[in-house]
Write a structure and sequence with these properties.
Layout: H1 4-7, H2 16-30, H3 36-41, H4 44-64, H5 67-78, E1 97-103, E2 108-113, E3 121-128, E4 134-138, H6 139-144, E5 155-162, E6 168-176
InterPro entries: DnaJ_domain, DPH3/4-like, DPH_MB_dom, DPH_MB_sf, J_dom_sf
Subcellular location: Cytoplasm; Nucleus
Pfam families: DnaJ (PF00226), Zn_ribbon_CSL (PF05207)
Amino acid sequence: MMTHYEALAVTPNANYGEIRAKYRAAILALHPDKLDPVLESSSSQQQAGTISSFLRVQEAWKVLRDADSRAAYDTLLLSDDGLETHSSMRRSESACVIGEEVMLEEMEESVGEDEGGGTEKVFEYWYPCRCGEFFAVSETELKEAGLDLGEEHVQRCAIVLPCHSCSLHLRVFFWASIPS
């Protein structure tokens, strides 16, 4: 079975820009309106194959253009009961491609506004992805993962952050307090 990456002729590590460029080129090459004179003179089997390729490219773009649906698709590709594994993708226990591992202290820190509309300031941490976008995590998300900035940190923990442009993930290590 052809993967969405194969349908667009990109690698699983391709960034959004590469996927978009391949999609646009494929749609222009396979669009039925552009091929109308060619399709009229070809057999019905060739017509069905061309339309099938066009629809396969459309479906691949629909999945790979959105970071969340792409991450879910990658997880499905890597699972034992999922689709056939793309030759350049390895099966892994984590079911995601970890591009880098860093300590929380290595991430850039910025101060943002409270999401609830309050006046409280919230720390946000970000780290550049090799595709040019950023991995980001808020203080709130870190607290949900076990980090309490006011307590003694005695247990090493990690959180995995997805890039919102490509399929890479960043593993961020930090020290958390042990729950009583």
